[in-house]
């Protein structure tokens, strides 16, 4: 005789439905924590706070380490002796080589980096090169957009890739007036620039690759917000500010657009609570919206007391 299993099946079905509901609640909770948004339980909106900070704008490029001084030395005749080798440190006036009738003296101190010739061979022209390794510079190329921002005397940070933990202070020494490359149909126009290095790590050598970050604009104590919270295009720029629990659109004027922060010269005051733009997240059961402000320093909830005419951000 067969026994009915309907009650057990109903119990299993109820358990499955409960598990699905729990998973849905967990997914929604994770979404809320990650993307912020208005919570029915807490009634808060994720915000970031307008603060005073230093806003810095930089131009980045790749570069190559070079000796600050490279001296070619000419010599003529059949070489009788060569008194140095590549890599030797020489002093000014030191004997470098001889022929039957002449002696070649070092015109400067430095490191011998190349020798063109051998004993018994004839030479007439550049014989060797001496470089000063006590002072280095970096040569870099700038895009046609960035070159207009870079000026002689601006400060920079240079990181020699072989010494990534030791960034070096640098100064822009020169910017080429004519491009070093580009101008064709498929090539970008680039302009060369030279930066002098204040100091270098022990073991640095010419030819090593480096990363360059030139500070082209900087303002201290600027009313600023993260760049991603500013919305709009062109001159029509605005942010959403939380006032007494309600979001209000506030038109703003931007100053320096830094690497991470944007200066606001008009429209915001220090302490204003700015609501990040909403993002749309597609899920398996539909589309949910929330703002992107979760987890940023200065974020908070609730209303910002005040309102009315908003002052400038200078």
Written account of the structure:
It contains 1 helix and 20 strands. Helix content is 10%, strand content 48%. The strands form 4 sheets. The chain has a 6-stranded antiparallel barrel. Strands 1, 13, 14, 15 and 18 form a 5-stranded antiparallel sheet that branches. The chain has a 3-stranded antiparallel sheet with strand order 3-5-6, with no helix packed on it. Among the domains are: 63 residues, Beta Barrel (OB fold (Dihydrolipoamide Acetyltransferase, E2P)), CATH 2.40.50.100; 84 residues, Elongation Factor Tu (Ef-tu), domain 3 (Beta Barrel), CATH 2.40.30.170; 56 residues, conserved putative lor/sdh protein from methanococcus maripaludis s2 fold (Beta Barrel). With 314 residues, it is mainly beta. The relative contact order is 0.19.
């Amino acid at each position: 005789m067969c026994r009915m299993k309907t009650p057990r099946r109903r119990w299993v079905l109820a358990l499955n439905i409960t598990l699905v509901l729990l998973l849905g609640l967990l997914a929604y909770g994770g979404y809320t924590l990650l993307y912020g948004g208005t919570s029915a339980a807490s009634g808060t909106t994720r915000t970031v706070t307008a603060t005073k900070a230093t806003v810095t704008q930089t131009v980045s490029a790749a570069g190559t380490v070079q000796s600050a001084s490279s001296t070619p030395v000419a010599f003529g005749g059949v070489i009788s002796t060569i008194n140095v080798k590549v890599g030797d440190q020489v002093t000014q006036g030191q004997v470098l080589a001889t022929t039957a009738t002449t002696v070649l003296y070092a015109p400067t101190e430095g490191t011998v980096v190349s020798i063109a010739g051998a004993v018994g061979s004839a030479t007439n022209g550049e014989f060797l090169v001496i470089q000063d390794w006590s002072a280095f510079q970096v040569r870099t190329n700038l895009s046609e957009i960035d070159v207009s921002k870079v000026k002689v005397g601006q400060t920079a940070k240079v990181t020699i890739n072989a010494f990534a933990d030791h960034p070096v202070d640098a100064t822009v020494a020169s910017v080429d007036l004519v491009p070093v490359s580009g101008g064709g149909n498929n090539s970008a126009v680039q302009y060369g620039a030279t930066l002098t290095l204040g100091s270098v790590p022990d073991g640095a050598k010419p030819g090593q690759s480096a990363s360059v970050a030139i500070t082209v604009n900087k303002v201290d104590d600027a009313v600023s917000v993260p760049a991603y919270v500013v919305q709009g295009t062109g001159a029509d720029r605005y942010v959403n500010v939380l006032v007494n629990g309600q979001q209000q659109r506030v038109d703003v004027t931007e100053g320096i657009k830094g690497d991470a922060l944007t200066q606001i010269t008009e429209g915001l005051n220090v302490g204003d609570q700015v609501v990040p733009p909403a993002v749309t997240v597609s899920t398996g059961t539909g589309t949910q919206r929330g703002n992107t402000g979760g987890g940023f320093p200065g974020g908070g909830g609730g209303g910002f007391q005040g309102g009315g005419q908003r002052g400038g951000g200078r």
